[in-house]
Specification:
Layout lengths: L1 E2 L9 E2 L19 E9 L3 E8 L7 E7 L6 H20 L9 E7 L2 E7 L3 E3 H8 L4 H20 L2 E2 L8 E4 L16 H13 L6 E2 L2 E2 H9 L8 H15 L6 H24 L10 E2 L6 E2 L2 H5 L13 H4 L5 H17 L7 E2 L4 E2 L11 H10 L11 H11 L12 E2 L51 E10 L4 E6 L5 E6 L2 E6 L4 E6 L6 E6 L5 E6 L4 E5 L4 E6 L6 E6 L5 E6 L4 E5 L5 E5 L6 E6 L5 E6 L3 E6 L4 E7 L5 E6 L5 E6 L3 E6 L5 E6 L6 E4 L6 E4 L3 E5 L4 E6 L19 E4 L11 E5 L4 E9 L1
Antiparallel strand pairs: 1-2, 3-4, 4-5, 5-7, 6-7, 8-10, 9-14, 10-13, 11-12, 15-16, 17-18, 18-45, 19-20, 20-21, 21-22, 23-24, 24-25, 25-26, 27-28, 28-29, 29-30, 31-32, 32-33, 33-34, 35-36, 36-37, 37-38, 39-40, 40-41, 41-42, 43-44, 44-45
Pfam families: Pkinase, WD40
Keywords: ATP-binding, Nucleotide-binding, Repeat, WD repeat
GO molecular function: ATP binding; protein kinase activity
Length: 773
């Protein structure tokens, strides 16, 4: 079917394949590539069509918006044209946010203006309520948790949407709010895994798999990525498919790396879209219709303008032409009232008393916490309403089921004390006071300082000491990174795009920090304990005031996923690495780039500053270890350190030794003065994290288990073999840890016990301490 875009055409429906309309002779293809299929919407400013992009082999669906104002009075037409043009400008400027349809094209044809946008398959919230009835509290919380970060993103770009309403919010196909099976977001995971394993087993020869060669078969599967997936994930699969199209021309080592990258991506996406039950799309509703947006510069906020938006959902100040950021929050709050009741907002407001009466129409009771949030969202006075999306998210996080609440109850599972001691090869001859220096955390190497809690009285009989798990912090999602503040007792973890701040002593979740649009894969805390830095797959690095959770800044220093962060000893210089970029050095004080380091031929998964701040070391996917002069921005030494990816590095406290851990199952100790290997520790399993203790006499190593080694004689002293269960895969471009470690020291308390925190695949953070039998 083809649909004629001529508004005066008497019979706009045409058979597929026609180039011109049989009724009026108008061209049916826009720009010789976009074919309208059917009319799906019509409003005061134009019409919307479902279409296909015939320029692409897969012929994906898209949406065409045609500017066609109903009122033809000249002043009205100019206003409508301005709004249409504004929508195009805003969509382009906001970039490829996964919850905002991407702008594909903007042009004029036959005297009319058109927008072409990404098509989001699914249902609007108003359609969903019509079909399934009013939402539950849990569902409304999901809507808020999904859309508030989008508003935070828009407002950070000085954009007010001005038309938040149920009809402008799409629940993508495959989202569990639709009650659909996960098949809508599934891929042939088994086929992909089998193909990759078979190709590796056969020696990367591009062998036959049925009627196709390996590279052809895997490209065909990757080309069938569901439209319900996030745009960024679909693009990553497309890029990988493009790489496999060149597979036959690649060398042996290049094929190895491509297979490894594909395996990591398949594992990550399978975790995301299959193993999490309903997939990541459950958290990503899509906000559409940016025709009413307004740029919120200071002058615009001070001047009275035109009231734009849907009257029932409009904030009072917006109806007077004075929209602010809080106006979008009001509209979102009213949307939630509609979702909970299934009634028009006009029915939920008593105009005589001037108060909301929505609670009288509730289909089922809701908590006092959510009630208070909705009351504050829908306050008529902006002085009493939430001022920012982050404020709502903070309250929503504190009031969420399973999280800490003001009563002091916590969302932790605490292990019985004392737990059974972990076996060790032999007991030390005397007390072994470990004290670990601060190392910035990353997904591969999460190592930081943590003051331990003393246990027992002032005097104690000498007895056997062993490690016991004394606390377990439970997360709702997989933990990708973790960091501990050098000023106790704060601990920060990342699950997906959200950061969570914990009090590690009590186990209480203090607050959630939102703002990233994709996985947070690296964290760093300044020595002062006041500044938190996070790096994400959304390409940004964000700076937070740790004690309050306030976001201070957001920088885009890379063009791809941020993999690792490292601060120097005084916190004045930040180093960051990404998938394809050079390393970036940033002056934290001024916010200006200090320089860029070029030289790695593959991604850099781990970086670390020397204790004297003069050298930055980096390890890459080819097993290459580099030492850089921070001031001269030049390499000092390059070593072919490992046969596979270097996943983690750490300096000894005196700076004379650098330890490197690798996917090849070894840890190597290097002399920083000569560049020669002092010793190799063979673990025979992927190494995910390492850290020296304060005197450099003990090295903690995380792999499938957590072990403490003596770096001088190469002997394992302690094995914590029950810290977490191992995982079987890794994330794309990052390397998901089997066990990630954080090591603790006690300052001014020589009698206190050592503490270790470990993170595994079971969404929990384990805290261990060295006690006595």
């Amino acid at each position: 079917m083809s649909y004629c875009l001529n508004p005066d055409c008497p019979k706009p429906q045409n058979r597929s394949g026609r180039d011109t309309c049989r009724a009026c002779g108008s061209r049916l293809l826009l720009k010789d590539r976009y074919r309208p299929l059917r009319l799906i919407g019509q409003g005061g400013f134009g019409r919307t069509f479902l279409a296909v992009d015939e320029d692409k082999p897969s012929k994906p669906h898209c949406v065409i918006k045609q500017f066609l104002p109903v009122i033809q009075e000249a002043r009205h037409v100019r206003k409508a044209a301005d709004l249409f043009e504004r929508e195009a400008i805003q969509l382009e400027s906001l970039g490829h946010h996964p919850q905002i349809p991407a702008l594909l094209a903007h042009f004029s044809q036959d005297g009319r203006q058109y927008l072409v946008q990404e098509f989001i398959e699914g249902k609007t919230l108003i359609e969903l309520v019509t079909i399934k009835g009013a939402f539950s509290e849990a569902q409304v919380r999901e809507v808020l948790s999904s859309l508030l970060p989008v508003l935070e993103f828009l407002h950070a770009h000085q954009v007010i949407h001005r038309d938040i309403k149920p009809n402008n919010i799409i629940v993508p196909t495959g989202n569990h709010l639709l009650g659909q099976a996960t098949s809508a977001i599934a891929l042939d995971w088994a086929g992909l895994t089998q193909l990759l394993a078979q190709e590796a087993t056969q020696g990367f020869r591009d062998g036959m798999s049925g009627p196709y060669r390996f590279s052809e078969a895997i490209a065909r599967i990757l080309a069938k990525v569901p439209q319900a997936w996030m745009l960024g994930d679909r693009q990553r699969c497309q890029h990988l498919s493009d790489y496999f199209a060149t597979y036959s021309s690649l060398g042996f080592s290049q094929r190895q790396y491509l297979i490894a990258d594909a395996s990591r991506l398949v594992h990550e996406l399978r975790q995301k879209y299959e193993m999490n039950g309903h997939g990541a799309t459950s958290e990503h509703l899509v906000l559409v219709d940016f025709g009413a947006v307004k740029e919120a510069n200071q002058t615009a906020l001070e001047l009275t303008g035109t009231a734009i938006g849907s009257p029932e959902y409009l904030a009072p100040e917006q109806s007077r032409g004075k929209a602010t950021f809080a106006s979008d929050l009001y509209s979102l709050g009213v949307t939630c009232l509609y979702l909970l009741t299934g009634r028009s907002p006009s029915d939920l407001f008593d105009t005589h008393q001037g108060v909301w009466i929505w609670q009288s129409y509730l289909k089922q009771p809701i908590s006092d916490a959510l009630t208070q949030i909705l009351h504050k969202l829908t306050e008529s006075s902006t002085s009493r309403r939430y001022a920012s999306a982050s404020e709502v998210l903070a309250d929503l996080g504190q009031a969420s089921p399973g999280q800490a609440d003001p009563s002091g109850q916590t969302a932790i599972a605490e292990a019985p004390r004392p737990s059974p001691p972990v076996s060790r090869p032999s007991a030390p001859s005397g007390p072994n006071h470990l004290s670990f220096d601060v190392v910035i955390s990353s997904p591969q190497r999460v190592v930081s300082a943590l003051p331990a809690t003393p246990k027992g009285g002032a005097s104690r009989k000498k007895s056997e000491r062993s490690w016991c798990c004394f606390q377990t912090l439970t997360n709702t999602g997989r933990v990708y990174a973790i960091a501990l503040s050098p000023t106790p007792p704060l601990l920060v973890s990342s699950s997906g795009a959200t950061l969570r701040v914990w009090n590690w002593q009590t186990g209480q979740a203090l607050r959630n920090l939102s703002g990233h649009l994709d996985l947070v894969l690296a964290l760093a805390i300044a020595p002062s304990g006041k500044l938190l830095i996070s790096g994400s797959a959304d390409k940004t690095i964000k700076f937070w005031e740790l004690p309050t959770g306030k976001r201070l800044a957001s920088l885009t220093l890379h063009t791809d996923t941020v993999l690792a962060l490292s601060l120097n000893a005084d916190g004045s210089l930040l180093a960051s690495s990404s998938l394809h970029d050079p390393l970036v050095l940033l002056n934290v004080t001024t916010g200006q780039e200090h320089g860029r380091l070029h030289g790695h031929s593959s991604r850099v998964d781990t970086i670390a500053f020397s204790p004297d701040k003069q050298v930055l070391s980096s390890g890459d996917g080819d097993g290459v270890l580099k030492f850089w002069d921070v001031q001269q921005l030049q390499p000092i030494r390059t070593l072919q350190a490992h046969s596979q990816t270097i996943t983690t590095i750490a300096y000894s406290p005196d700076g004379k030794t650098l330890a490197s851990g690798s996917a090849d199952g070894t840890v190597k100790l290097w002399s920083t003065q000569t560049g020669r290997a002092k010793r190799t520790l063979d673990l025979q399993q992927r190494v995910n994290g390492i850290a020296f203790n304060r005197d450099g006499k003990t090295l903690a190593i995380a792999s499938d288990t957590l072990q403490l080694w003596n770096p001088r004689n190469g002997e394992c002293q302690v094995t914590l073999d029950k810290a977490t269960p191992p995982v079987t895969g890794v994330c794309y471009g990052v390397g998901l840890p089997h066990t990630t470690i954080l090591n603790a020291r006690t300052r001014n308390r020589p009698e206190a016990n050592e503490v270790i925190a470990s993170v595994g695949s079971d969404r929990a953070i384990y805290l261990w301490q060295l006690g006595y039998n």
